[in-house]
Amino acid sequence: MEPRHFVIVGYDAAELLDIACVVASLECANWYGAAPYYKVRLATPGARPIDCGPTVTLQAGERLERVTGPVDTMLVSGGSGSEDAAADRLVLAHVRRLARESRRVASVCTGAWILAAAGLLDGRRATTHWRWAGALAARHPEVRVDPGPIFIRDGDVYTSAGVTSALDLTLALIEQDNGPELARTVARQLVTYLQRPGNQAQMSMFTAAPPPSDSLVRRVVDHVTGHLDADLSVAALAAGAGVSERHLTRLFLRHLGQTPGRFVREARAEAAAHLLTSTSLPMATVAARCGFGTTETLRQAFTARYGIPPAHYRLTQSRMTPEAAGT
Fold first, then answer.
1. I want to staple 116 with a disulfide (CB 3.0 to 4.6 A). Which of 4, 12, 140, 312 is the partner?
2. Cα–Cα distances in Å, from 231 out to 253, 261, 297, 304?
3. pTM of the predicted model over 0.70
4. Contact 63, 211 (CB under 8 A)
């Protein structure tokens, strides 16, 4: 079997981890094959080295101008230099050319700026690092920017969030090309205990705290995340906070961008995801601990949040052995 040609496009001030996560994962996949699965090439304009900061300079392997197809995958890395690269007509011309000669196109982090500037995301749903999603949407209104997922596939174009999401994206590509067993083998070799699905949020609500300026919202959030099995109806939360349901809803929308009810559902689903992948608790126990009441309620809420049933999530994403996860 001929190896798949995987071209990574870099430029000055590209992010080292954006490149390293991809290269390490693909080369790890090669270790486990009778023949290499991938031929990985790093190309920059003029084959110039990539200044990744004051500590590391990365040597490029090929001149971007001389890379020709057919290419299996072209992936554009992100980095602090992405805005300059997105304004470079030469870079954009070669990205467009290679895209026409590639089976699929991908980006990591702010590499989406370059794909968008090249017109490759027009009319597509795409993501990037949550910090830059608003700016990308403002500059390219023709792109349907979704800052939530860690990676998105829209046809033959893939975009991913910041930095280490490159690992999640690459594992998903390896699974698509060669099956789930190789992807899991690579994940284990890289000591990546949880291969996150693409629709998982970039930021956990348990670490993304509300603005400190609003102590009432913070108190309600702390109560929700610490008492998931309690009565967390809007009426109960408003009564506990000493405000009306309408006022509490207004505060949540202003500071968290969602209603109290939706926040509760997502908090419970995220807690369930953690228990499913880190414990062997029965499904009914997981449902009760997270406040869902029944396994069917858990299944409906979990599928709405993650796109797959909780049993399948546990089977494919568990940090334990399959035998322990199935007990």
1. 140
2. 21, 11, 15, 21
3. no
4. no
